[in-house]
Amino acid sequence: MRTQVCIIGGGPSGLLLSQLLHLAGIDSVVLERHTRDHVLSRIRAGVLEWGTVRMMERAEAAERMHKEGFLHEGIQLAAANRGFRVDFKSLIDSKVMIYGQTEVTADLYEAREKLDGVIVHEAQGAALHDLDSDAPYVTYVTDNAEQRIDCDFVVGCDGYHGVSRASIPAAKLKTFEKVYPFGWLGVLAETPPVSDELIYANHRRGFALCSMRNDALSRYYIQTPTDDPMEKWTDAAFWDELQRRLPNEAADALVKGPSVEKNIVPLRSFVAEPMRYGRLFLVGDAAHIVPPTGAKGLNLAVSDVHYLHKALTQHYQGERLALDHYSPNALARVWKAIRFSWWMTTTMHRFPDQGEFDQRIQESELAYLESSAAAQTQLAENYVGLPY
Ligand code: APR
Ligand code: PHB
User: What is the DSSP string of 269-324?
Assistant: First the structure.
């Protein structure tokens, strides 16, 4: 088989890139190691920057999002039992879309099918070859037979544990990493959300977040040690701890119920530079990881897709240097999101070695945020998404 762009990974970034390239007249093949049902079974965050909404509109995949998604014009922050709102609308005339990431991926699958996009599922053992030549190719196995795709370019949309970044010689990559000394225990419950907006709470016992998927499906998180045994966190224990960390009004309004999904995830910041090696480009989690505090994971992947689909389109229109700009352009925005996610995480969480002084500093940072439109504006413009 031959194609112009071989995309490794059928998650949101791989599907979005394939769709945008198709609409630009560039053919691609997506290799996904799992089944479509497996990809769509992942429960993930649902805060979309408005830039992500615009990219889904350009991909002709935003119709259901506009029907079923929720517009949020602000978030609530809380500390020392006091809450305040950061109003995106009045500060920067902006908003975010609340729409499950699984739905984004499902909509992209449907859009690819409508245009007869080529997605190979259960493509096992993908291996990238001759990336530093002008004739790269990818091999993989389906139905116990080895397949080969010759292409102009390979794009790694295969996440943190994928094969793409691992195919780059270590000497050609510089990586940056920060592992946070705690994780998030996340619970999905078929209960009405405690608030019609997200609540980020800083508490001496640890961080808590109240989110939602829709008006009957709530998503909650509390900071926990990464190695906490799951058996410690019965539903009752979770609800009690969440309630302790929320301001009184939210704690009183909390509707408890059986969890339908419960797990602990670690938090890290990670960046690999550059996001290119020869004919291979890295996109999304394959190149960077953010702590979920700033809800940047999917949005940053979409940002990379914006820069890469633009560079590939310009390349095929004859601009031979266009692709040289992808990595520096994408990284410039990646590091701003890495910074914001780090800042939100360090401001809102209680660190194991944190003393009373540090707690007071966090509480004064939040008090400053509460009192300053300038401080709230910097939070708002980063949260809704900086311009591409
Ligand atoms: N071969 C083929 N497919 C692979 C391989 C491989 N060797 N390794 C991983 N994949 C597939 C995974 O099965 C997954 O479907 O690549 C896809 C990667 O998707 P994501 O992990 O979702 O990464 P990405 O598309 O960059 O999305 C970025 O959105 O999925 C969320 O929160 C997540 O921050 C992340 C963001
Ligand atoms: C979620 O809804 O899962 C979510 C929302 C906001 C975040 C992280 C996760 O910052």
Answer: EEEEE-SEETTEEE-GGGTEE--GGG--HHHHHHHHHHHHHHHHHHHHTT-TTGGG
Residue 149 pairs with which residues in a beta bridge?
138
- Cα 155 to ligand 1 centre (Å): 12
d(CA 93, CA 113): 36
Determine the residue of 209, 289, 296, 348 to mutate for testing ligand 2's pocket, defined as the one with the most ligand atoms within 8 A of the Cβ atom. Answer: 209
Name the band, by pLDDT with cuts 50, 70 and 90, for residue 43: low
Mutate to test the pocket of ligand 2, among 42, 211, 212, 213 (most ligand atoms within 8 A of CB): 211
pLDDT, averaged across the chain: 96
Whether 188 and 261 have beta carbons less than 8 Å apart is answered as yes
- What letter represents residue 214's amino acid? N
Question: Which tens digit of pLDDT belongs to each residue from 284-314?
Answer: 999 999 999 999 999 999 999 999 999 999 9
Place of tokens 């970034």: 13
> Taking the CA atoms of the chain, what radius of gyration do you get in angstroms?
21
> Which DSSP string corresponds to 124-146?
EEEEEE-TTSSS-EEEEEETTEE
